[in-house]
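Feature request, filed as a ticket because there's no other form

It would be nice if the structure record came with a short human-readable summary line next to the tokens. Right now we just get the raw output. Example of a typical job, pasted below so the devs can see what we mean:
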Amino acid sequence: MLGLTYNTIMEPPATFLLVGIPGLQSSYLWLAISLSAMYMISLLGNSLIMTVICMDSTLQEPMYCFLCVLAAVDIIMASSVVPKMVSIFCSGDSSISFNACFTQMYFVHATTAVETGMLLAMAFDRYVAICKPLHYNRILTPRVMLGMCVTIVFRAVISMIPLSFMVIHLSFCGSNVVPHSYCEHMAVANLACSDPMPSNLYSLISSSIIVGSDVSFIAASYILILRSVFGLSSKNAQWKALSTCGSHVGVMALYYLPGIVSVYVAWLGQDTVSLHTQVLLADLYLIIPPTLNPIIYGFRTKQIWERIWSLLMHCFFNHSNQGS
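Raw output as currently delivered:
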């Protein structure tokens, strides 16, 4: 009898219940509309960028290939959380199965790790293009680019395996209500009856190492880029070199600033920052970059904007001609 009771208590819940954003229930309709609009922009914008880069042979340079991978990662990142969020805000369907919850958690962490790696690869691309332009094609060969992308994805996958193992093997015998709008790691782990501190520490340390090392290398790349740019004699050449990096710097700011604030507020500001602010920060961290990245790159990169405009005009006029 005791063994039966013990097994029943230790059995994980069949489902978790996602609260959404605690304290903002009155704004759920507007949140659902906003998230849906941002998600559609993300899907359309990133799909357009992937399409024009894959279709146009003149956009097969390393920078555009890295951008294509970044767009694919953005779609996966947004798709892993937004549909469920909208479902919660619209219909109140807050249940998510045990396996689906941990699958969502895995994709959220893995895609964010891939995203920061791709930003590093793009910073390296700009460094080679500006500081070593004569050796650009010799350094960034297709083989090197493939190796960089595989390494970035492999790092993300490997770093998530210990975290997934630790969280899945926690004992969930109490509440199954997650005070969040997606299966955020700390929000789920803190529901466990066993000590969640090892998995929480691993998450903080691994993300700090990955993001910290990437940001350090990105900063080093841009220090070398700035030294090279301001060493140019022509003001026009300086401006042109800096403008090619402008979109990348904007995308990095959109990704790293909300992400760093979200992570450390969850750890250090639990008693000073309201729960709905913490949850909203974590939500925006996953949806704002995928939404704005294609807009920034589309408008800041002349070649991409021209190809997207040409593709849209071609599709529109072909459809109009067929209709008439």
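Something like this underneath would help us a lot:
The beta strands are 15-18, 95-97, 177-178.
The longest strand covers residues 15-18.
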